[in-house]
Amino acid sequence: MAGPGFSQDLRQRQTQSLVLAPQLRQSLKILQVAALDLRSVIQEELQNNPTLEELPMEGTSLEQQSEERERDNLNRDGEGPNETPSQSNEREQMDFSKEFDILTKLDEDWRDYMSNAGGAQPFTADDAEKRQHFFDSLVTETSLQEHLMRQAEMTDLGKPAMVAMQHLVGSLDDRGFLTQTASDVALQTGLPLDVVQEALKTLKAFEPAGIGAKDLGECLVLQLQAKGRGDSLAARIVRDHFTLLTRRRIPEIARKIGAHMDDVQEAIEEIGTLDPAPGRRFADDNNRVVVPDVTVEDDRGEWKIILNSDYIPRLRISNTYKEMIAKGSLSKDERDYVRERMRSGKFLINSIEQRQQTIERITREIIKVQEEFFREGVAKLKPLTMTQIADAVGVHETTVSRAIANKFIKTPHGVFEFKFFFTPGYQADSGESVSNTSVKEMIDELVSLEDKSHPLSDQEIVAKLQEKGINIARRTVAKYREELGLLPSNLRRDYT
What letter does residue 424 receive in the DSSP assignment? Predict the structure, then answer.
């Protein structure tokens, strides 16, 4: 009997939870990785799925690959189009030959069998050994984005905040600094600002310390806070006297902060032990080669979209396995195993094709909005949100976010990250929309053309932009100038 104040009973409660099937996870991964990384993802599946085989890439177009997949689908699970169900059942009831007993072990004997099976691509045991040695020689490092999203999965962030986290992580540069503000992300995603700020606060608590900072000063302060030194003299120097710190004005810092010069020197030495670019220790940032996933070319006044398929293996379902199913010589367990592997292989092939189609559709919609950019350059970049593209393509905005993650597009004006084309902006007096990237370009141009003996102040830049019909606050000009790495006017003056 239960004690006083306690009761025991059984109750049913309905709850909703989102569980991603392994195949769906794989499909999302294929959508998200860049072309250069996709090959390793596919090679991993090739290792795990014996019914998949890779064909030569030379001289084969995407259209030809698509036609081959359609022909393969006509013979689903190895059953011919003219085969009756009774014929199929008869084949399934036939005794299983010892010749195919390797289905349960898939070792080198299977490789020997494949080399004698008369297939288009003989695959000997020696070939298998060489291929395995190749795979064993590959070293896969964790990217900064993967490292951070793994930490995010361990938090109790809600779904909207997790979407914001994905955008914030995607906006980090090679140092681990943010390239977009919380307001920018809120405008792009349509999420409430407080949700984005919650995600940003969480991101700044992740390892390595200093990730998610807006600039070097904040990065150093975050690292000191992580060490429990947030109230130290070093933190005060970085937070309140960063400009003097960069010039190593030790006497002036000591006077302003009211500390002994030896203590200031010791604090600066502590600051010197911090990492100014915590993101660069990860794989994505170590000598990474940028390979465009898409090339956009002007073809007689029309824009031609060329998808990069150089790193995408050409796959098909092995005819050998189809024949094994068709002969009906497998036991039920063996037949079920082969069919499951074949379905998994077909899902992978379809996922790759769907990835390419999604990227092409997104690129086409970007061109529609940003055509002036493609013709004239960065100054003509227009404001664009992922929601706009998602609505036009007919997918969720998180799909757009995944599809453009870690991907680059080659344009007549250079190679850009896909996310470069998604930016909030301003409404000019003429009614034309102008992106903040274009405004930054204008500021950079104004400073480059200024009289160095009388450089433009931030307020004078505001006035110049107003002449162009762009109404922008002085503090915003100051922020953009700092993001461009431009010094204040008093430090740009040439006294010679």
Answer: -
| Cβ atoms within 10 Å, residue 101 | 12
List pLDDT tens digits, range 160-170.
898 889 888 88
Query: For residues 293 and 360, what is the distance between their CA atoms, to the nearest angstrom?
Result: 10
| Domain 425-492, CATH among 1.10.10.60, 3.30.1450.10, 3.30.565.10, 2.60.120.1520 | 1.10.10.60
pLDDT tens-digit readout, 297-335: 998 889 999 998 877 888 888 888 888 888 888 888 888
pTM: 0.48
Instruction: Indicate the domain borders of the chain.
Output: 21-75+290-420, 144-281, 425-492
DSSP state, 122?
-
Distances from the Cα of 292 to the Cαs of 33, 176, 282, 311, 467, in angstroms?
12, 22, 21, 11, 38
**Nearest residue to 380 via CA among 417, 425, 418:** 425
The helix/strand count (H/E) of the chain reads as: 24, 8
- Cα(168)–Cα(165) distance, integer angstroms: 5
Contact 166, 401 (CB under 8 A): yes
The two tokens of residue 244 are 């003097």
